[in-house]
Design goal:
Layout lengths: L2 H31 L6 H26 L4 H12 L6 H18 L8
Length: 113
């Protein structure tokens, strides 16, 4: 797997997951406009569950499109993140996706294995 492959995979995941979040936000807005309120902890839990569910589904399709499996992507990603000066584009693409995940889940994952 090349750096361009890793970038393409993470960029595609980022764009598709942003779309999922936009749909979720619309649904939440509709619920709130109907007069129902969702407590913040419940809202975050709901977002995280839906994000994780959608990610699992989308990730499989993206990996299939790029003819790779999860282990392959993981190994290449960690190798590239271990040499950020050599693979700056991969580092940027992965961190952008990680920040999106952190914003949704509240869980810090940048730089974690």
């Amino acid at each position: 797997i090349t750096e361009d492959d890793v970038c393409a995979i993470f960029d595609q995941l980022f764009v598709q997951m942003q779309s999922v979040l936009a749909q979720l936000s619309q649904q939440i807005q509709q619920i709130q406009m109907s007069g129902q309120s969702i407590p913040e902890p419940q809202l975050r839990q709901l977002l995280r569950q839906e994000f994780d569910r959608a990610l699992a589904s989308i990730q499989g399709k993206v990996f299939e499109e790029h003819d790779v499996d999860e282990d392959c992507v993981q190994e290449a990603t960690w190798e590239m993140l271990g040499e950020p000066d050599k693979y700056p584009k991969a580092k940027k693409a992965v961190e952008r996706f990680q920040k999106l995940y952190e914003n949704v889940t509240g869980e810090k994952i940048v730089g974690k294995r």
